[in-house]
Queue: 2 jobs
Job 1
Amino acid sequence: MKRIRSPSPVTSSKTASNSQHQAKKTHAVESPFPNFAHPTLAEAYEVHQILSRAHPAHGAVRRPPTTSRNSAQTCGNVPNVVEALIGVILSQNTSGRNSASAKTSLDAAFGRNNFAAIASAPRADVVEAIRHGGLANKKAATIQNILTSIKEKHGEYSLQHLAETDAPKRMSDEAIMQELISYDGVGPKTASCVLLFCLGRDSFAVDTHVYRLSKLLGWVPEKADRVRAQAHLDLRISAELKYGLHVLMMQHGRSCKGCKKTGTEAACVLKAHLQERRCAQDSAGRQGL
Ligand SMILES: [Zn+2]
């Protein structure tokens, strides 16, 4: 029996649970680090500006979902919610090229969005279809289990009720998040990608690049794991910056050699920014300001 938590605010004691299962499912309406006051609004805007200048082709215009996209390569940038979810699952722990190829091969094997066929197929057939994407056994199990749960809960292989845009059927971001993470194998990052790229909501997905850069920038405590970092940042970063910052930080994380490795001489606009800020603080300190 799946439990969907109420979208109403929960107390911080709930979000601070230490168990791994809870940590995976933790999506907070209160930061797990309530006393950590970064990033400020100004800090987030500043980094958005710096990255916009460094990567002008990214993040400026929000791309609405279309059926012409491969959901695994685009973090779920398609209109069908179940297809978006499967795409994001396929994209976990692999390159865009491999996950795109796994999605193409899944479509070829079962028919695009033929979720009934995927759900009822022998596990080995699904594993074979997505083997280009890595972790095929785990991902096949996750996908088949989610499809079965969706059918049990809603009577059909569809989550399009999450895409309703008009009142009174339109759901809150938090209610959508809670429904998505109620499915086994769907964590807050996967759910956040579906919110951001499929449903057009403002949600701050923290993947491996965003996580690394957030630590570099001092936006999350050193001890923060990726899930808690997302819970913190989703609350600290203003809605209008979430899409742009996510896309820009992903792009920077993928392309910049200067902050990928320690000890490199390669230039990095974020490292230069941090250096400048440290110098300004030092000089203010020397002047007794
Ligand atoms: Zn960099």
Job 2
Amino acid sequence: MRIGIYSFGGCEGCRYWLIDSMLRVCEELGAEIVYEPLIGLSKENPEYDLVIIEGAVCTDEDSEKLQRLRSRAKYLVALGSCALLSGVPGLKRFTDPRAAEMVYFGKPLPKKPVDVKPITAYIHVDYWIRGCPPDRENFERLFRAIISGIASGRPFKLHERRLEFCREEFTSIEGSVLRLDGDKCMVCGRCVGACERMGVYAIDYAYRSISTVVTTPFSIPFDESTCVLCGQCTLVCPVGAIRERSDLEKVQRILSRPTALRAYIEPESLAAMSSYFNREVEVIIGALIARGFESVAIYVPEYHADVERPLIPASEAERRFINIFYPQLAELLSEPPAPPGGSSVLITPCLAKKAQAREGLVLTTREAIKLISNIDLDEVEGTLPIMPSRKSITFREVHGPDNVIRFLEEYTRGVRVKEPMILKMCPGGCLGGGGQPYYNEDLYRRMNEALARISSTLLVID
Ligand code: SF4
Ligand code: SF4
């Protein structure tokens, strides 16, 4: 078996780091490296059984050379972060193009540069090995498997081995309300971005290259970290690796027996469920009754405040946020409204309310959607919910992480009149709560319209 090793834009560290391993595995398996200038083999072969490529495509000359190599190689491996993700050369994208002119003192650039891209953007790659540089032990195992597979005429398919070799270990983070399952996480970082947008920074990347994971500082449980349990990360995870503690099974068990269980549903959850299933709210209420609840009542949280405690956290999330990031304002906090107790289940857009439940159970809107998803809604008899019996005292509110943080900053500086204010951290308020279904622009617009309809019909109390 003839192997060629080529390099494009990058530091060449992968080849230096792994050449010993490659030589050892080749000797063991009877394969031969026939092209690798690093060890004096600089005569190119017209054809290869396997070509290993390190580095990113940086010039149009690179891209032509790469296409030619692909046509001469039976199998091709992309080695390291530069080949796979454009790595260090990719940083060029974030720099001012005039910087290159300055480096070359205004002279024409030696080669025509192109937008730096991973080699997978130009050609089909049979195997990729991640890392900056890749872990040596994992590399040897994969390299051995690739060579043996090709030699035996039964090369393995990428998806059979990819995960085994791309990740060394999994870090799972536990918590009373939230769990990150490292086994499922593909380190896309969407949750990290969501947490940053909340101004919390409780989760981030840790470790380098093949060992990179998303975790809390020192992998401490969520409850011990700065996590405020808002659940915004759960809304963006494409694989459900970061999720709320589910009370669905408990509720299903209770509902499978004769029960006097009442469901309380928040207007934002009702709006989301009605939009998700594209049904009138009465059908959603009817489906919950068909599922076994004795009755369904609209739940409007009751807020309390006085001059001594004018900051009203909508939930545990805002209370935690102030306690952690604005401890100087903690004495001004009133209690967040508690979920109803007794024999009841609260359906809420707010994931943090799971942390407040004392007696009753709490389902997020997502869980409630699952609960009724196997009911034929065409067969359901529409039912009106039990309405709130009295008007709750209303206060002004501020919502969204940026607005809440701005408000707290100004409050700290004494700029604002110290009037009672409800604080809602989630973007758009409770409609955008961390327990809502995964929404896109269209679903969110329909949820908004449904909420307006609910407010103007069901929630009008004289
Ligand atoms: S629940 Fe909120 S605060 Fe906690 S990790 Fe997720 S986004 Fe960050
Ligand atoms: S969003 Fe999900 S898959 Fe992506 S890094 Fe976070 S937990 Fe992992």
